[in-house]
């Protein structure tokens, strides 16, 4: 993260009936698990929809279809003791391949950080009722 830099991120809401595809991570300083919609950073000169398609291809090896822009959210927060300012461009989308829908959980890969991405299907009520932590929090009421 660059100081005094606003990070633009493209995130995809992919549904399997009433379940949302989410990735799981852990806050480094608090050892607390949280979930978030898959996607990633938008590079300079790249449209956010193209970034979303690229991220799903890179991390899961899948193609997106029926991509529809939904909303932009903004957040100011602290992560790993660093102030962060992010804009999330959120899209609804479907995955062209069938295998992710056939598995309750699976792994992707984030090459930039050499990390495995644990993916799950979760009902939004798990987040809205506070049983699980979801970021960006601003998105929860709209799920």
From TrEMBL:
Entries under Pfam families matching the protein: NUDIX
InterPro entries: NUDIX_hydrolase-like_dom_sf (IPR015797), NUDIX_hydrolase_CS (IPR020084), NUDIX_hydrolase_dom (IPR000086)
Listed name of the protein: NUDIX hydrolase
Domain Nudix hydrolase: 5-143
Keywords: Hydrolase
Cofactor requirement: Mg(2+)
Transmembrane segments: none
Gene Ontology molecular-function annotations: hydrolase activity
SUPFAM superfamilies, A to Z: Nudix (SSF55811)
PANTHER family, per database record: GDP-MANNOSE MANNOSYL HYDROLASE, MUTT_NUDIX FAMILY PROTEIN
